[in-house]
Amino acid sequence: MSQNSIPIPIPIPQLGAAMALVQLLTEYPHLPHASWSVALDTGSLHGHIHTASFESLTGFAAVLGGSIRPGQDFPVAGRMMRPHRLHSMWRDVRVEVVAVLPAPVQTAVAA
Question: CA-to-CA distance for 95 and 86, rounded, in angstroms?
Fold first, then answer.
């Protein structure tokens, strides 16, 4: 390579998501604590609220907008749990925030 050649930047899809996450947490430090990852293929952000409550998830929805949808129930230690996923966009980056909560107990209704 000659001294006059200009290096061609290699696209890093995770960079935009990482920068968007820093901006989100800087602008809204009151948001509930979450673990974050960036998808290697799409550059989307994935957050998981470990001390989950529905109020924690709605706190993210108030800032990010989007919609919260329930997922499929699954058993954990003899208890049924239900994931709730917020899907949104932040600074042109797709964002998913997940909170796993106890599923409502189904009760039989007498006819």
Answer: 8
Beta carbons of 95 and 87 less than 8 angstroms apart: yes
Give CA–CA dist 87/48, Å, rounded: 12
Q: What is the largest CA-CA distance in the chain?
A: 85
Question: The whole model's pTM is what?
Answer: 0.79
Cβ-contact 36, 21 below 8 angstroms:
yes
CA atoms within 13 A on the CB side of 35: 5
pLDDT in tens, 73-84: 999 998 899 999
Q: What is the DSSP string of the chain?
A: --TTPPPPPPP-HHHHHHHHHHHHHHH-TTSPP-EEEE-TTT--EEEEESS--HHHHHHHHHHH--EEEE---EEETTEEEEEEEEEEEETTEEEEEEEEEEPPPP-----
